[in-house]
């Protein structure tokens, strides 16, 4: 059982044997993490997977050298001590959390892992009095510091310019499919579809609080509906659009924000002031939609602007006419 925070050991209180044991378990964990990254990337980013395989091999070699030293000094029984047993010791984020964030995020996390390991070995070497142990820990600190260069060398070995370009293109495409596309659909739905009910109520009642409540209900309801619809429509296994949970969150949140944008001004008590600000917000929302379409979906800006402005104007007119009738 992992001890609680209060029962964790302080690093300065660890014996040299325990420091070696901690280093061994840390190298085992890091090698396992790198192999998990490699397996996660292998299908879509084979060259980057080979890089992480190589980094896992480096960690295995470090572990072997540490075990040899421990055996020579303390015997074959290695104490069970891990990162979570030591107060203030650096922790690794769950692999499932990092591996779902994309190729660049995984690379950044690997670089941070190497920096953490370097600091540990420097502190461990400073605390050790045995010459052979100090030398090995110092060597490993230097090795971890050089791992970024090693990673670059492995990247050069396994990643040709064409392969690197292909992986970057694939990562960008995945980002578009998982986050931008459902988020854009949600923003368009929330911004445009809520115009009619919000402005219909606004012109029918000229009551800002009632208008705000209707806008809030319409935005939240549309967000929930859009989020569940997106998540349930495609599990991403065949289409390659990524996690349904991520897509549902993107669609739901952006739908809600799209509707709230022109509902929030009706918290202002004066009806015409609130309506004028709401119209300005609608213009900004429609411009943002057109920009996102142009930036990420390669839709010509003028065509995107014409489409969203025309659609928004028609929906707004419908709401205003119905509310004034």
Number of domains: 2
Q: Helical residue percent?
A: over 70%
Structural class: mainly alpha
- Rounded to an integer, what's the Rg over CA atoms? 28 Å
| Spans where pLDDT lies below 50 across 5 or more residues | 1-5
Major sheet strand order: 1-2
Q: What is the overall pLDDT average?
A: 82
Give the overall silhouette.
elongated
Compute the number of helices.
12
Largest sheet: number of strands, sense, barrel closure? 2 strands, parallel
Strand fraction equals under 5%
State the distance separating the first and last CA atoms. Answer: 70 Å
Number of strands: 2
Order of H and E elements: EHHEHHHHHHHHHH
Description:
The protein has 325 residues and is mostly helical. It folds into two domains: 5-159, Ferritin, core subunit, four-helix bundle (Ferritin); 167-324, no CATH class. It contains twelve helices and two strands, in the order E-H-H-E-H-H-H-H-H-H-H-H-H-H. The chain has helices at 16-42, 46-74, 95-99, 103-127, 131-145, 147-158, 161-193, 195-205, 208-233, 244-261, 271-296, 301-324, and strands at 9-10, 86-87. A two-stranded parallel ribbon has the order 1-2. Helix 1 runs antiparallel to helix 4 (103-127), helix 2 runs antiparallel to helix 5 (131-145) and helix 11 packs antiparallel against helix 12. The radius of gyration is 28 Å and the shape is elongated. Mean pLDDT is 82; it is low at 1-5.
């Amino acid at each position: 059982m992992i001890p609680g925070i209060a029962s964790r050991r302080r690093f300065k209180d660890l014996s040299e044997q325990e420091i070696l044991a901690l280093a061994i378990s840390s190298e085992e964990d890091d090698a396992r993490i790198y192999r998990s990254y490699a397996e996660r990337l292998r299908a879509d980013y084979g060259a980057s997977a080979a890089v992480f395989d190589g980094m896992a091999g480096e960690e295995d070699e470090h572990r072997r050298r540490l075990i040899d030293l421990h055996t020579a000094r303390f015997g074959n029984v290695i104490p069970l001590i891990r990162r979570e047993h030591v107060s203030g010791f650096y922790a690794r984020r769950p692999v499932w959390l990092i591996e779902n964030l994309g190729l660049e995020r995984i690379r950044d996390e690997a670089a941070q892992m190497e920096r953490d390991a370097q600091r540990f070995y420097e502190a461990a070497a400073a605390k050790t009095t045995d010459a052979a142990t100090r030398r090995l820990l110092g060597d490993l600190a230097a090795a971890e510091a050089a791992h970024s260069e090693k990673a670059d060398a492995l990247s050069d070995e396994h990643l040709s310019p064409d392969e690197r370009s292909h992986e970057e293109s694939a990562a960008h495409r995945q980002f578009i499919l998982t986050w931008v596309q459902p988020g854009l659909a949600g923003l368009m739905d929330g911004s445009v579809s809520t115009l009619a009910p919000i402005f219909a109520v606004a012109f029918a009642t000229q009551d800002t609080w009632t208008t705000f409540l209707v806008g809030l209900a319409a935005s939240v309801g549309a967000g929930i509906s859009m989020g569940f619809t997106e998540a349930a429509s495609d599990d991403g296994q065949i289409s390659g659009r990524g996690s349904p949970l991520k897509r549902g969150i993107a669609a739901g949140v952006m739908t809600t924000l799209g509707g709230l944008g022109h509902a929030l001004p009706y918290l202002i008590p004066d009806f015409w002031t609130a309506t004028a600000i709401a119209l300005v917000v609608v213009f900004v929302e429609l411009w943002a939609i057109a920009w996102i379409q142009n930036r990420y979906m390669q839709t010509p800006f003028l065509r995107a602007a014409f489409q969203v402005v025309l659609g928004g104007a028609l929906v707004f007119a419908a709401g205003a006419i119905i509310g004034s009738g």
